[in-house]
Amino acid sequence: MPREIFRDFMSRALYTPGTGYYMRPEHPASMAGDYITASQHPLFAAALGLWLRERINGFAHPALADVGAGNGLFLLNLIAFLEKDDPAFLDRLTLYAVDKVRRFDHPRISFLENAEDLPAIEGCVFSFELFDALPCHLLASEGNGWEELYVEDGAFVAGPLSDDRLAGWIAARGPALREGHKIEACLEAAPLYGLLASKLRRGLLLTFDYGFQASVLRRPGLFPNGTLMSYSGHRFGRDVLQNPGGQDITYAVDFTALREEGERHGLRTEGMRSLSALLAEAGRGLPPEAMAWNDPFPARDLFFGAIGQDLKVLVQSRSD
């Protein structure tokens, strides 16, 4: 295969129709699959349901859009919880699922393939581990300049920057780092985040993902080889080039870039915190037995395990 920009390799491996990792009929996030995710847990949906009810119930026509809905368990668990806890709020709530592959159906959920097709929403635009799977360029600091890493014969090779926009990205996001330091440059993240912000007429933009503020992500010596990694069989690795389409490829999200993009679109930043911190606030009204909800994994992991501590949520909002 000829030399390929890593960004194109990642896009092909993850999103080629029919063969891409995220284009399978069965979503890879499950105990039987490659990884678990907090959004699949019924306690997560219940806590977010309580929290969102407080924040958006006063809107005339509240709506929730899950962008990158995957197997739909967040929305399905949310519906199941609200059917018992507050059916009146559920009846007023319009639900949208956005994903490239339709893996579930529910009469309460409208399915869209593209976020561009979302209407203007009063309520919440929600995403969970969406941005850490966007194809990225891989850059390396060399002397006084920067090179881009390409893929050739199953290995990385250095070459010139492939996109004129990368020079501006480096000027804004890539301060002088030690020679050989690698960083991921995603040119798609800010435009997508801006699109989601533009769909929010009033309410909340909630972004759950793995990542850091730019001051941490770009700290010299902290991530000398970048944050790029693979996931398969509930184990992470560093060989992201093996088995294209058969493993996840991911990296740490630059939350500073997302926050700044949201603010450029008029959103107010309410803060960024860990998943466990948000759930501790959001889940105050849950019954004590909720901590015994151990399917598909122990509920306590959402608060005390790595999944609760490492996952972050950026909360931005728009008022009248």
Q: Helix and strand succession?
A: EHHEHHEEEEEEHEHEHEEEEHEHHHE
Helix content: 25-40%
Number of strands: 16
- Counting structural domains, the number is 1
Largest sheet properties: 8 strands, mixed
Q: Supply the helix-strand structural class.
A: alpha/beta
- Mean of residue pLDDT values: 93
- Rg from C-alpha positions? 20 Å
CATH class, named Alpha Beta
CATH 2nd-level architecture:
3-Layer(aba) Sandwich
**Helix count?**
11
Walk me through the structure:
- The chain is of the alpha/beta class and 320 residues long.
- It has a single domain (14-136, 183-225, 254-318), classed as Rossmann fold (3-Layer(aba) Sandwich), CATH 3.40.50.12710.
- It is 30% helix and 27% strand.
- It is built from 11 helices and 16 strands.
- The protein has helices spanning 6-15, 42-56, 73-85, 87-92, 165-173, 189-199, 214-217, 255-264, 275-282, 301-304, 306-310; strands spanning 4-5, 63-67, 94-98, 109-112, 121-128, 137-142, 145-152, 155-159, 182-185, 200-212, 229-232, 235-237, 248-250, 253-254, 268-274, 311-318.
- The strands form 3 sheets. Strands 2, 3, 4, 5, 10, 14, 15 and 16 form an 8-stranded mixed sheet that branches. Strands 1, 6, 7, 8 and 9 form a 5-stranded antiparallel sheet that branches. It has a 3-stranded antiparallel sheet with strand order 12-11-13.
- Strand 6 (137-142) and strand 7 form a beta hairpin.
- Helix 6 packs across helix 8.
- The protein is globular.
- The protein starts with a strand and ends with a strand.
- The model has no long low-confidence stretch (mean pLDDT 93).
